[in-house]
Amino acid sequence: MPIREDVVVLGGGLAGSMAALSAAESGASVRLVTYKKSTLRFASGLIDVLGYANGDGPVSNPYDALSSLPDDHPYSLAGEQAIRDGLSLFDQVTGDSYRGSHTDANALVPTYGGTVKPTARYPEASAAGLASDSRSMLVVGFRSLTDFDARLVSDHLEAAGVPFDVHGAELSFPKEYRADAKVTRFAKALDKNEDIRFAGRSVWMREAVAETVKPRLKDAERVGFPSLLGDEHADEVRADLESHLGADVFEIPMGPPSFPGLRLEDRLFSALDDAGVRISSGNPVVDYEAENGRLQAVYVDRKRAKIPYHADEFVLATGGLVGKGIDSSREGVTEPIFDAHVPHSSDRYDWFDDDAFGEHPFARFGVVVDDEMRVLDDTDEAQFANLRAAGAVVGGADGAAEKSSSGLSLATGVVAGRNAGASI
C-alpha cells in the first residue's frame, strides 16, 4: 500500500516541526520526513525574533522594528501576526520550561562568549542570568571543560557595561575527566548524582560541585554555569545546587552538543507525537514526481530503493547553507531536491563582502516565496501549486546578523503549515 498523507513536511528542525504542528491543527494527516539530526543540537535553545535591524541594535521591541525591513524579507511577507502565532504555538509546546511570553520586549541573555543576545523566549534554566538583572554574578567554569572560559565570559560582560558586579572562576570538577571530555560526561554525572569521594569523605556529586563553588561565591547572589546541569533531571540538578549554595543558579548557553537545544528538540518531538504527526527519519529525499504543475510525491532513498511518499501538500523545511537545504559549488547555488530558484550572482566574488563583518549576500541565499510561503520560480510564479517553504531555506534574511533565525522558523513554519492544511 502506498504511503499517503494530506501534508508531507521535509525537515525536522524548528521550522519543520512548526509547519507540521500547524498543519495538524487543521485536522490534516501529516508526515514529517527528516534525514539527518536537526541543527537544534547545535543551537543555543534561545528563541530570537529580531535583535538587530539594518545594522542597528540591540532592538528593544522586535515588533517596532519590523517596518524597517525590506519588502522581500520573510517577516514582511509573513506579517507580524504570523510571528505572534508562531510564538504562541511555541509557548504551547514548551509550557513552563520557557520564559518571555509576558512581554513583547527582548530579554538580554548572556552567552558563552560573554556577549549579550536579544531574545524573545529563553529557557527557564537561563532566567536568573538576564543582563537586565542588577544582582551580582559569579560565572563558573571547569578546567577540564575547555570550550568554556568563565573568566573570559565575565570580562566580556563587564566590558559590555552590564549593571552588576561579575567575576569568573575556573574550578576543578569534583570528578576528574580527560581534558577533551565531552560536556555530556558532566551532565550525566550531575543527572545521576552519584556518591563520590570528595575532600576525604563520601559526598553526593551535586553537593560536591556546590562545595567546590562556595569558596569563590563571595557576595554573588546568582551563579552561572555552562549549560551542562543535567539532561533528564536538569530542573532537579539546578534546584539542588541552589539549595546548597543559597544563591540562584542559571545556565549559560554554549556550543554543541547544546543541552538547551536537545531539551527543546525533545519537547518538539513529544508535541509532534501528541498531535498525531507521523515521523520518518534517517533517509534522504532524492527525487520527486509532478504532474500538471502539482507535486504528486517525493521519493525517499531507503537502502537503494526509492520509496514514494504521496501527499496533497508539501512543505520544504530542510534548512539553509548550514543545514544543506541550500547547496553551493563553483557552478552556482542550488536547492537540491526540487531545483527551486535561488537568486544569486553568476560571479562568485559577488557572494561575499571584502569586510569580514560586512553584509554578505550569501547569508541571504534561499528560495523565493510569496506571502503564503509558496515557492516561486524565476518568473515569480509558483513552481508547484502545492509546494511551500519554511525556515532557513527561505531567502531574503540574514538570520545570524539580525538575530532572527528562530523567529523566522516559527513565523514561516506556521504560515506554510497552516496554508498547507487549509488547502486540503
TrEMBL record:
<dbReference type="GO" id="GO:0009331">
    <property type="term" value="C:glycerol-3-phosphate dehydrogenase (FAD) complex"/>
</dbReference>
<dbReference type="InterPro" id="IPR050315">
    <property type="entry name" value="FAD-oxidoreductase_2"/>
</dbReference>
<dbReference type="InterPro" id="IPR003953">
    <property type="entry name" value="FAD-dep_OxRdtase_2_FAD-bd"/>
</dbReference>
<dbReference type="Pfam" id="PF00890">
    <property type="entry name" value="FAD_binding_2"/>
</dbReference>
<keyword id="KW-0288">FMN</keyword>
<dbReference type="InterPro" id="IPR009158">
    <property type="entry name" value="G3P_DH_GlpB_su"/>
</dbReference>
<keyword id="KW-0285">Flavoprotein</keyword>
<keyword id="KW-0560">Oxidoreductase</keyword>
<protein>
    <submittedName>
        <fullName>Anaerobic glycerol-3-phosphate dehydrogenase subunit B</fullName>
    </submittedName>
</protein>
<dbReference type="GO" id="GO:0004368">
    <property type="term" value="F:glycerol-3-phosphate dehydrogenase (quinone) activity"/>
</dbReference>
<feature type="domain" description="FAD-dependent oxidoreductase 2 FAD-binding">
    <location>
        <begin position="6"/>
        <end position="408"/>
    </location>
</feature>
<dbReference type="InterPro" id="IPR036188">
    <property type="entry name" value="FAD/NAD-bd_sf"/>
</dbReference>
